[in-house]
Amino acid sequence: MLKQYFTVELEKYLGCLWGLALGDAMGMPTEFLTPEEIASRFGGKVQELREPLVSHPRAGCPAGAVTDDTGQAIALAKALITYQRLTPELVANALVQWAIEVDAFGKGFLGPSTAYALKALQKGATPAEAGRQGKTNGGAVRIAPVALVFSDNWQLLMEQTAIACLPTHGTTLAISAAAAVSAAIAAALVPGASVEDVLKAARLGAVAGRDYGYPCWTPLLERRLDLALEIISRYAERADQIRALYELIGVDMTVTESVITALALVAVTGGEPMPAIIEAVNMGGDTDTIAAIAGAICGALRGSRAFDVTLVSQVERVNSLDCKKLAIELLELRKTYMQRYSF
C-alpha cells in the first residue's frame, strides 16, 4: 500500500504534518521567552531539538516532545478519518477526550481559550456556547488536517474550518485566522504553487472566515497581513525582517500577532520549512505555535524532502507518531471527497 503513495501529493501531505510537529517540538522549550533570553539561556540560536530549562513551564519534557498544538491537530485528524466529516459535537468530543487522555488539564498545557472551553464542555455547555470567547490561535494551529482533506473544495474547506474552531475558538476573529491558515495550506498543496500563491490564498481565507462565528471587534487580518508584508519589504537582510516582525507585528498568542507573523515568515524564508521553523523558534513569545503554523504551510509547499529527517525521526519516536500513515489516511479521505463531488 505504501508504494502506491510515493507521490508528490504524499510528500506534500507528509511535509505539512512534519512541519507542524517539528515546529511544535522545536519551539516547545523556547516558548514564553524573549529572543534575548533564548540566545542567552541556550547559548545562541536554537537549531535542534532541546529540552526546556528547569525554570520553564514545560520543564521535564524530553527533547522532541510536542505540545497541545500537535496533539489537538492529530485528534482532529483521527476524528476526520473515522467520521469523514466534522460536526461541532465531534470536534468537542475529540478534543475533550484527547485532553483527558494526555492529562492536559493537570499538566497545564492548554491555551487559555481551549482550557476555558473544554472545562465548559465538561460541565455541559454546548459547542456553540463553549467557544464564544475564543480569540487566540488554538483553532488556527490545529487546522492542518482539515486543509489536507478539503483543499479542493473552497466551500467545504471554509465550512469545516469554522466547525473545527467552533467549540473552543468560535469568534469571527479566531475563525478568520484559522481560515487564513487552512487556505494557505490548501494553496501550498497545488503542484507548482508559489509563496505568492500561498499568501494570496491566506488573504482570501481571512476574509471568508469572518462569515462564520460570533462577531467580535478585530483588525482585519488580511490588512494585518498586508502590513506585515509591507514591513518586511523595507529590509534586505533576514535578521532585520525578523526583528521588525517581532517589534511591529508581535509574537503573542493573539492571532493578530502570532498567525500573521507565521504567515509573514513564509515570505521571509521563501517558503522553506527548516529556515521558517528555526526563525520562529528563536523569535520568542508563542514560539511553538508560530513555528508549527509556518512549518505546516511551508511543509505543504515544499514537501517532505525539505526536512531534516533526523530531527523529524526523533520527534516521531519521542511522541509515538506515524505521520506517514496519517498522511496516507488523510490523502485517501481527500480522494474520496474528490470522487464524491467530482472536484
What does this structure look like?
The chain is built from 19 helices and no strands. With 343 residues, the protein is mainly alpha-helical. It has one domain: ADP-ribosylglycohydrolase fold. Helix 3 packs parallel to helix 9 and helix 11 (172-188) packs parallel to helix 17 (287-302). The model has no long low-confidence stretch (mean pLDDT 94).
CATH homologous superfamily - what is it? ADP-ribosylation/Crystallin J1
- Which band does the percent of strand residues land in? under 5%
Largest sheet: none
**Element order, helices and strands?**
HHHHHHHHHHHHHHHHHHH
**Quaternary class:** single chain
Helix coverage percent of residues?
55-70%
| First-to-last CA distance | 24 Å
How large is the count of helical segments? 19
CATH architecture title:
Orthogonal Bundle
Q: How large, in whole angstroms, is the Cα Rg?
A: 18 Å
CATH class membership = Mainly Alpha
How many domains is the backbone divided into? 1
Low-confidence stretches: none
Binding site for Mg(2+): 67-69, 286, 288-289
Family: Belongs to the ADP-ribosylglycohydrolase family.
Cofactor: Mg(2+)
GO molecular function, one term: metal ion binding
